[in-house]
Amino acid sequence: MYTCKQVTGLISQSLDHKLSFRQKIGMYLHLSMCKLCSRHKKQMAFLKQLLDLNKKQPDTIHHSMNLSETKKEEIKRCIREHTHS
Amino acid sequence: MKEPGKKNNSARPEEWVDLYGDILFRFAYGRTLNPELAEDLVQETFLSALRSKSSFKGSSSLKTWLIAILKNKTIDHFRRVAFEQPAAGFPGDGDPIIDLFDKQGKWITEPTRWEDDPQKLVENDQFWHTVQNCIAGIPDRLAHIFTLRELNEMTTPEITELMDITQQNCWTLLHRARLSMKQCLNVKWFTK
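Predict the joint structure of the above. Result:
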């Protein structure tokens, strides 16, 4: 029987690779009886959902963030120098 | 401006900045959560694109091409960081697992309830700022592996190669990183 500590390790690993059949059965058996680990698993899934959106739609999520005007001018200046040299 | 497609492919390099500067910046910000670093990466991207302008065939959109360059620049940056980081100083200090579980492997610090709507939360700048603060607050190696895996689209085999660690080690570090981040967000955001 897995401990809570071991199960949190498996929950994390399930985000990186396919767990073995034994690991899966052991994990779900523990989760079916442990409210805290189930809550933890849900929270990890919640964070993953946010991080995935950040990876997939940065333009939508961070729509209020803009490249500063100072930086834009600086880059344009660099480009001009480069093209005229 | 909506999705400038191929119609801008012939834009002069100077115009790139106004056309794609913000899009690239948001993309770089998502992968670093660090506005200063994101700005520098965008600058490097434009200058690198300028130097290799002749290799742009126009078969994709200019935007796609620039984003591909930016992705590489970002990974290059993190590769340099990994190289400069001492391999020692391994977890040990600030190990979240020690604080969370007792000797029998039971929760000491029980996960508290979170009430939040992911759709609202995801567009909250303040939340991402808190994520950045948490990354900055955990041990360097954990911060680094978390950034590669959760902010960039790197697979674990790619990370093991980049950081020169074993697969088991990679999973363990990721587990510690995720727990540390979750604990930090729990305190600084969800139960605040």
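The mean pLDDT of chain A is 95.
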